[in-house]
Each structure stands twice: as structure tokens, then as C-alpha cells.
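Two proteins, back to back. First:
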Amino acid sequence: MRAVPWGGVEMTQVVYGVWDGVAYDSRAAEARAADYALANFDEFDEGNAIRAFIADRGFFVFDPTVSLVDALFHYLKAAAEQSCGACTPCRIGTVLVRDALDQMRRGLDAALTLDDIVMLGEQIRQTSLCGLGQTCAVALLAVLRDFRERIEQELAQHRPIPAQHGMAYVTAPCIEACPSKVNVPRYIDYIRDGKPENSLGVLLQKYPMAATCGRVCVRYCEQACRRKFVDEAVGIKTLKRYVADQQSGPHALKFTRDMIRKPLADGMRVAVVGAGPAGISCAYHLLLRGYHVDVFDKAGQAGGMAQIGIPSYRLPKDTLALETDIIVDLGGRFLFDQRLGRDFSVDDLFARGYRAVFLGLGCQQGARLGVDGEDAAHGGYFSGIDFLLKVHDHVDGIAPLVLQGEVVVVGGGNVAMDCVRSAIRLGAEKVHVVYRRTLADMPADPAEIEAARAEGVEFHVLTAPAEIVTDHGKVTGVVLTRMQASEPDAGGRRSVKPVPGSETSMRCDVLIAAIGQQVEDGPLIESDGIAFDRWRCVATDRVLATSRPGVFAGGDCVTGPSTLVYAMAAGLKAARNIDDWIQRGSVRFFKRSRMRKLIADNHMLANEIVAAPVRNAYRVHNPEIDPELRKHMFGEVEQTIDARAAYAETQRCMRCYRVYSVVTKHPIPEGAA
């Protein structure tokens, strides 16, 4: 094995192997292995060389002394353990092949010959009903087709083969796309099997806000779903909402209480600053680990941007409260109306005896447009965040808000969509979206864009504001410039530039700048020894530790404005790392994270589906209130599907599990998932 530089990345070359049906063998005269190099495959963990890798698309060997018999046994063992049992080829075939390989590696006479294994492998691959069965024999068949002599050489000794070190990792495209790495096929399996409480348990292992996520998640998992190559992606978000709505409250609380480790000593206290999705997730996972957690927030209620930034027609606030209340139910405390930099500092928290601090501050300060006339606009001009806060107060009955005339919202993200749809409900006569790029470039959830259009919002793309027009400080209009898109760059992104002389005026009574957010009170936080990066976000390392020992951070204050599910994933990661830092003084190596990085860095997950007959069955959609009715109310637009529809949707999952396995020189350290 040797590593060669390629584009600044260490590329590990293959000794022999097969990938996507193509054989590579550096031992041959043609040395075809030079045609396939892998990034960062030299070591699995520090000083621990990767000797072989087996996957759904083939295998690679980096150490010619590796035992393929033993490696394939462990691979098929993982596949057999994951089989759902719905079809005979996968349920029985994987077990028969696994047992035969086990007998071979023990030096015993196997019940199957190599030809029998080939026959069984082909049956498993061609007739299994799910992605696991259709792919788990690919590497096995490739070995016996192109490198059978290697197996025969190992078996010729008729002696036990020494066990090798390594690990197996079972995943799916939807799992890898999810920031929280929720086992999507598993929770779908439980719904299909009539066990919704078990399905909820799969979700609660990753985050506490399942019903919230089931309403506002942007569905990275569905974007990766292979079912879309047949008809439409599985309604993963729809099924999540169904389970959460059926099993919330006492069901969720009982499950999470059963997950709590033995409570730690009273001195094991952690402070969480920010009661948004990142802070709630971090507090939740720390409580499950036995810590005593206090959550500080400048507001008077939990939820952060989910509370004030997502209108109630998308996320009812009682649903959100039901899930954030789990922090108190598990023994944590909320300390509201407490602002970092005003009421306490990081120094204060450590002085009070907290062993660590997590900053989940979010980004609640709107960005400016930077155009002429902005400083003079005092009436009718809002940032997207400020406007949504006023909408929140209006719905809560704190401060009524009524709009008249025309409203222009600048921006193309989810905040912009929330602003335009809220403006309609507040009485605006006409609402416009102004976005500097094309409709296809809009980062907002496509479903939100379509919902806005159904409610009568007008979209003006390749258009940007050049000046805000005011009269005695009151917004009366905006000057717009037409934009021109360039050719796509290497990453497929087009730059845009103004078209000279294309300025036009548009009348408006309210202008909302929904173009971005940033961390509030940055200088005050920096004075506590917390460094910021050049984007004015809290700077963290790979384990979410900040520049100050014992202080971790995650969510929007680290990444910039992102999604709820990314924030919750950061909370989980931070809780895991805070636990290690307190208990061990350092953060452990996490082998599953390393395997995920190997897969991602080398684009191991193929984009196409496995060729197998699948009957067309289009997805179930959440029932919705008619656009003409809903645009006059803040009540929830989407409704939950019923049990019959949920069962029908689960049948569409193709269970695209994939098994990945590495053989290493030394044992892999035992870390968490």
C-alpha cells in the first residue's frame, strides 16, 4: 500500500480489487490499480492502517496478506443481522453463506462449496426485495469471479485463519443525508409492523423534537431517497410527523426516561446558553447522560428561532412547547430572561460550579441590504427576523400587527418564504418576492415556494434592490435592478451582476430584508474569551470546542443560519463531546463518524438505484387547507395523515441499506456512534 498526493489530498492506491464491475490489480503487468485511487484511506485511526474495504459496489485490498475469507465472513454476518426477514433469499441466503464462510475460516469442511456460494449469492442479489439483499453479495461474487485463486489459496491450508481487526457499518442514502443520522428505514419498518412507539424511539435516540421536525424539516433524507428514481421519494417527513403526533406526550417521556443513564453526582452540572433547537438537543442528551442541566435564554419561553422565526401556520406553538417541556420533565431547568453579556458571563457560569458550557445562541440579528436609502428608512422597513418576531407577538396577542398596501420581501430562503406568507395573512393587498438569482437557485424548501405561489405571492427573480425610496422616513418604494447570470463555475454555481441601465421602480408600503442573519452581541461574547471567525460566527474545532477550554458551541452561531435538524445534530454532537471532556479530559475517536467520512470523501454511495422491479406507487401527501381559506388565518395548514395512509407510505420504502466493512491492522478504539 502506498499513498500518493492528488490535489493536496493523500490518495491511497489499491493492490487489487473490484469496483462497479471493473477489476484492478497492481500485481498484473498492466497495473490497473493506478487508475483508481482513494482519498484518506491510508489509516482508519492514528497508526492503524486500513488493510481492506468491502462495500455494496465491490471491494479493495491494500495489504496483500489480508484474509478475504475472514473479511467476507464479517461482511455477510453484518448483512444477515440486518435482514428484515421479508423475503427468503436475503433471510436464509445470507445466513447460509455466512455460516459456510465461518466454517471455512475455522479450517472446517463447509456445508457449501465455492460454486454453491456463487449460486446462492446470485439468487440473493437478483431476487431479494430490498436494497440490502440486492447489494450484500456484490463483493462476494466479485471476489469469486475475479480473484477466486485468493480464496482457494487460503482454504488449501485446511487450518484456522487468524481473526482480523475491523468493523462493519450499516447505513442507507437517507441516513447519510440526515444531519442527525436518524435510521430512517428502521423507523419506517416499525410503522409498517404496527409498532409506532418503537418508531418514535428511533427518533428520540437522536433528538427530542420529532413532531417539530416532522413539520419544518427541509428533508435532506428525501433528496437522497432512491425511490425518486422510480416515481417519488418516500414521504419520510410525513411519516415522522405521523409517528410523533400519535406517540407524543407520555409515550415520548416514558421512552426517554428509560434511556437515562444513572444520574451523576450533584456537582456534574452543565450550563446551556440558548433554548433553541441546538440548546434543547444538547440539554436533552446531557440529561440522558445523567448530568444536571440548566438552560439560560434571553426570551421568556423556549424554542429560539423555532419559536419566533417559524410562523404558527407551519409550526403550532403548543406542539413546540410539548417537546421543549421534556427538558423540565427529565429534570433540567429553564432560566428565562437571562441574557449572556447582560445578566451573566461565561466567567460567572464557571464560578457557579458548572463543569462545562454550551453556547447555542443562534443568529437572531438580521443582515442589512447595504443599498442607498437604507439608513433613512425608519417606517415600514424590517429585517426578516424582526418582522417574524412581530408576527409571533401578533399571533400571541402581545402586539397586534396589520399590514396594508404592497409588501416586498428581498431574499430567497425559508425566512423569506415565512415573511411573504405571513404578510398575506396580515392583510397585505399584494406581496412580492425579489431574488437576485433564478428560481432554481432559491435555497428555500421547494414546498414552501410552491405554497407561497399558491397563496398568490408574486416572484421577481434575477432582480435586486438598488435603492430604498422613502418619504419622511416612511418606505414608499424600491428601485430594482435586473441581474444577469454568468456561465456556471466548476461547482455549478452562477455568479450574477447588475445589467447597466435596467433600473425600475416598484411601489411598496413595507420592505422586508430577509437576506441573512448573524450572531447578536458578538463583541460581548468575544470579551469572554470566545473567538469568532471571519464570518463573525463562533469559531470551533471539529469537536465543537471553542477557543476557551470547557466551552462548546453549535447550531446557527457556528454555521451561520441553517436548519433545525442541523442545529439538533450539533446539540447531540456537543453533548457527546462535553461528556467525554468532563469524564475523560479529551474527546474520544468515534469509529462510525470515521466510516461516514470515508464514504463521503470517496463518494461511495452510488446515485442510481439497484435494477429491480418496483411497482409504481405515488407518495401520500399531508392533507392541506385550501389556499384561498388558509391565507386568511394562522392556523396550521398541513394536517397529519391517518394510519391507513401511513401504512401505505411505508410500503414504498425500498429499504436501501448498504453494508460497509473495513479490515484494519490493529483493533479500532471503542467510541460512541
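And the second protein:
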Amino acid sequence: MRVSFYIKLFLAFIIFAILLLGFSSFAFNNFYEFDKQKKDKENIVNILNHQENSFKSYVKLFDEKLFLLNQKNFLDIDEKEKSLNIFKKILFNNKDILEFKVISLDAQEIIKVTNDSGNIKIVPEEKLQNIYSNSYYKNIRTLKEQEIWHDNSNLEKPTIINFILREKNYFLILKVDFSSFFNDVYTNFDKKTLVFFDNNSVINNIKKDDIILTNQFNSKKIYLNENKYFIFITDIEEDENNNYLQEYYKSIIIIGLGLSIILALLFSKPIAKLNKKIEDENKNLDLSIKKSFIELNENQKVIDKHIMFITMSKNNIILEVSSAFCYFLGFSQGELIGHDYKMLIHKDTKKKDYLKLWKFVNDGKSYVGEIKGIKKDGESFWVDLFVEPNFDNLEQIIGYTIITYDTTYKKKIEELYKNMNNQVEQYNAIFENVNSGIALIDLEGNFKKINSTFSKFLKYKNEELLEMKCIDIVPENSKELLSKILKEAREIETISNIEKIFVKKYGTLIHLELSLSLLSDKKHFVFVVNSLEDKRKLQELNQNLELRINQEVEKSIQKDKLHQQEQIKNAKLTSIGSLAAGIAHEINTPLTYIKGNLELMEYDIFDLPQSEIQERMKEDSSKIKEGINRIANIVESMREMSQSSKEIKEKTNIYATLITSLTMAYNRSRQVSKIYLNDKLFDIDSINKNEYTYFSKVQKQRIEQVWIIVINNALDELVKINDYEKRILNINILEEKNEVIIRFKDSAGGIKAEIIKDIFEPFISSKEHSGMGVGLNIAKKIVDEQDGKIRAYNQDFGAVFEIRLQKCEEE
């Protein structure tokens, strides 16, 4: 049986009303509870703030009593009764004050007044004590004059607070019991407030077990001084008298449900009639859509015939193409569909334009631009195109639609105008300087146009110059320089006022000023020359040039000598390395023999009866083992340093190369300075080359040579310091992004300002009696060969040499 729309609508109204009433009542109840809790919390916060202000005011009251008493000069009064009256009047009018005393700077009590249940008396001098052992005395010794300190270090009764005022020659101490204040805090507010000391001691003698801490409470720290505080805690009580709300909710739900039924009856029938009317209208609409669909098919045929468009898949395969586009390209639809669209793109299309187009559409954006293509017969064309991505239901790109418009003729007209504008610019540039010699040359230096002034300067006819190049009118020794000037002018576009010597037709020389300007077509220069009368200036320039050439030649000779010396030194080092390798091998064999026999001997020593001789033999064998380990470390470093340097770069632990270099320099360094590696004092007896791993792809022996150069340079400077304790060399190795950083920092006073900029140049040295100044230059060359960087600077009264190498990831 089919249920009528009227009944369905009536039931829907009822269900909706029930859901709406239920949700409303639930939301209202939650809002009421939340608002109530919020107001309770705000009330508690106000109470805690009021209590804090009361506490601070009460503390301030006793501070003021101390300052007031200090102004009475009570120490100058001889009679105790007068002093006692002052104390009663100023201090003991408050029953919470338990005691007042004056303490000398050496902790001796000078005056002490007690309050025993209203009995106020001055303690006799013979009963005065020294408070040096009191816990708070160490805090008050550092007080400044007129500075006050609060202390409640009495663990048995933390409600007692000492108020201490520092004077020039003594301390004023006032002991106050805050028990009554805290009792008032607990009883005088509508919310019960519990007070705790910061060590969890309970105030008001209320046991901690009696405290009921709910999940909802507020607390506040109130500081007595910078590290002493009390904790005021107030719990949030829940109001259980809200039964009337439940009855109120029930009434609302019943009344709402009744109203819902009445409204459903009233509105269901009109809506059902309206639904019937809409159904009839939908039938008419379906007929209209069918007619529109027929018209749309007709329009699509028109679009296919007259609009050039193409549809592609995401992987650029043609899925659909209009008949108009096929006719324009000369292809049939069968020749295009299923093929890659790149077959239509001209090979002259710039890659960056192509990438820009697809970057837009792959980001989900539409693209408008132009592109050059090629037809079936090979003819090129230009089109304006609009590219839009196609999306599926999940908003993922599934293809592209491209609509094009032929702009080939427009592009050809623009090219014609561009050529005409270039020609106008050329003529304007030539005739703007009619008083100068002006020529138009191409990028290779061939003359294209010359004015009469230019021909007059060089005594050539125009026809003769048009068959020549610009380098043909300069001396032989200037041809290469002019070629460089032309090359530079291509990059910077303009070169002005260069003084040059030119050769006239009959071989005579003429001094002219040359300027070059690159035209907008980037294919031609305007070549402008002007006469120069002053030849002395040119002669001076030639002389300075000759002097500079001589200096550069001399510098090159010195560099060649340095290179020869380095080659000789490398040859010697190679020989020494071979010798060291042999020695290391020969030492290693007996060393192994000694080490093995020592281990056997240790077993025999441990088997001996315990005695003084056995203990002495154990100590001697331990010392021998330390010596053998030191020899083994030195031999191992000699063996590594003496290995043949490989020309290829390999993955190397830079920390291990530092250990090797420091071992080789240890004999000298231990007499000159302390050396710290990663903030740890270097000791040859405790070496672990794998303690840290910082890998870089370098030539191992070459990079070790750099470390030895830098270490020896630092030791040369540190030895100048008389005090050994002030000699320090810090070596730190760390990683930063993709680099391994090695810093050598000494305490030798830093690099002189006049040489720090050229410290890595050859023959630059700060040593007065030795050194050619080539070590750091060699070090820089090695670092450059390893694709690294080295720099030097001063920091904290010392020199820093920082080497950065490319980081190689650990496999």
C-alpha cells in the first residue's frame, strides 16, 4: 500500500519537532551548567584577589611599623620603661606581634622584647643570644641599607613570619603570628579557602586528610618574597538544587510536542497541494529540456564547424578535436585523435614558455597566451589559446580543453613593424652625433654604415671601410683588446669614452676616443669615435700599463719559484714518507712481540702470592703498557701520514684526520700549548678516531696537510706568549646544513689588521725571523681543490681559521 505524501509530510514534521525539542533542551541545559560554573569561578577568582590584597596590606602594616619605630631613636633612650612604652605604643598594640629584637651585624642580640599573652617585657642583657645559626641569618646578611626581608622558615609553625629591616649598623626583627589572619580568611568568606605553605605544610592546623579536592578548584600563589609563597585553594561547589529545571524541561517538551502536532496539521495539507503543483511543473520542464537538448546538439555542430578547439587527456593524448581545427591544420580527425599533441608544437617554441603553460594548468588554473605551431604541410602558424583543466567529481584533473584563435597574420604584421622600428632607431642613433665619427657594425665587427666624419678621421673612403672590420683599423697589438671590448659590450650594452689608437689608411696613428652602444635588435653596435688632442695623457696611461705589466710578470716569476720549491718539498716529503712507512713497519713487528709477551707476563704476575713486590710489578707493567700504547698510536699515525696520496677523492671521516694530524704534531704541541678538540683536552694516550663521525669526500693526505699547516702556524704564534697557562688552541668540528665546519681558534692576540685581508696570498707572513709566507697559500689551494672554503678572522683576542667542506652523508 502506497503511503500518501500528506501522511509522509505530517510524520516528517513530528519527527523534526521531536529532534529539535530534544536538541534545544540539551543545549539549554549545557549552557545553564556552563554559565553557572563560569560565574562560580569568577566569584572565586574575585575572592582570591581580595584575599591577596588583604594579605599584602597586612604585611605592609608591619613593614610600616618597623620603619616608624626606626625613626624614634629608641636605642638612645637610657630608661627601659620609656623604651617599653614606645614599643607598646607602636608595635604591641597588635596582639599578633610575638617578639621584637635588634640584632648587631655580627648576629648578637642588642634588644629583645617579648609578648607573652599580653605580658610585654624587655629580656635582660644576660639572656640575650647570638642568632648566627638561625636559618634566616644567611639571607639577611646580604640586605642593603633600608631594605626589608620577610621570612617564614619556621617549619613547625609556618604561620610565623619574621619582618627584618636592615639599618646601617644593626637589624630590626619583628616576629608576627599570622594564624588569626589565616583563620579569618577561612571563615569570613562565602567560599572556604585553605592556605598551604610552599612545602605543603598545612595552615590553620587543618589536616591534609580533611581536605576534599574536587576536579574543579581554583588556587593562587601569594608570594612573601621572591622564593617563599603561600597557596590559597578554594573548591567549586556544585549546586544540587536544580530539580526544578528538570520539571521545567519536561513542561517545555510536552508543550512543544503539542504545538508541533497542531502546526503539522495546519501546514501539511497546503504543502501537499503545492507538491502536486510542482510535480506537474516538473513534467512540463522535462519536455522543455528535451527541446533544449535538441537545440544544443545543433549548436554543437555549429561550434564544431567554426570554433577551433581540442580536448586532451591528462597524459596529453588528443581525445577530441573540432572540424574547424582539423581543416586549419590540414589533418583529419582520425590522424589526430589518439596521438600526442606535441606533434602540433613548432620546434622553435621556447622551453620556458612551454613549462610556464603547463605549470598553470597543472595547478588547476586557466592559462591565456600564444604559441607557435606547425601544420601538416610544414607551414608554421601562431595562435592565441585559452587552456582550461577538466576535473572529475573528486576535483582531480583528468584532462584539458584548449580553444584557439588564428593570429598568424597579426604576428607577421607585428614582425614587419618591429623591423621598421629597428631601422628607424639605427638611423636616429647615427645622426644624433653628426659631429662625431659614427659607424654601424654588426656583432662580428663588420662595418655596415659609416658617416663622412668617420671616413675623414681615418682617410678611408666609405666603400673601403664597408669591406673591412673594425679590428682592421687598430694596430696589431690592440686587435685582441678591441675584440674583448666588443664581447664585453654585448653583455653590458654600452661602453663609453675609451681612449684608443687607430691606424689611418697610410699607416699613421691617430688617438681617438671610442664609445659603443648596442642597438635594441641586439645584432648591431653604434661605433662612435671622437678626436683627442692631448697625447700626454695617453703616454702616461701607456707608462702605467707597462709598469703594471712588469709587476705582474715579476709576481708570476715569484709564483713559479714558489711552485718549484713546493715540488721539491713534495718530492722530499714523498721520500720521507716512504722512509717513515718502512720505519713504522719495522717498529710494529717488535712492538707486537713486546705487547704479547707483556700480556703473558701479567698473567704470571697475577699468579704470584699477594705481596709488596707483586703490587710494584703490577704498577710497572701498567706503565709499560701505557708506553706501548703511546708508541702504537704514533706508529699508526706515521703509517697513515706516509701512505701514498691518492689523487681521487674518497669518503673520509674528518675527525679521524684531525686525530692523525694532532698525533704527528704532539711532540711539539705538548711543549708549547694545550690543545682542546671539541672542548676536550687532546691526549695521545686516549685516542678514539671514531668518537665523532663527520664525513666529507676529500683527498685524505692532502686535507691532513692543511691541518698540520694551520696547527703549526698557531703554535708559532702561541710560543710568543710567556705564560704557558694563557696558551690555548681550541679545535671544534661541527655540522651546519650541508657543510662540515672545522674551526681553529688560538689565544695569541689575533692577525695583524694590515695582513688579514691578504693572509692567504703568497709571501704574506706575520713571522719576524722565519717563514716565507707560503704555508697558508698552499693550504688555501688544497681546500679549494676539495671544493671547500677557508677564511680567517679575529675573535676574542685570538685568530680563527674556519674551513668548510661539503658534507657527505653516512651510509
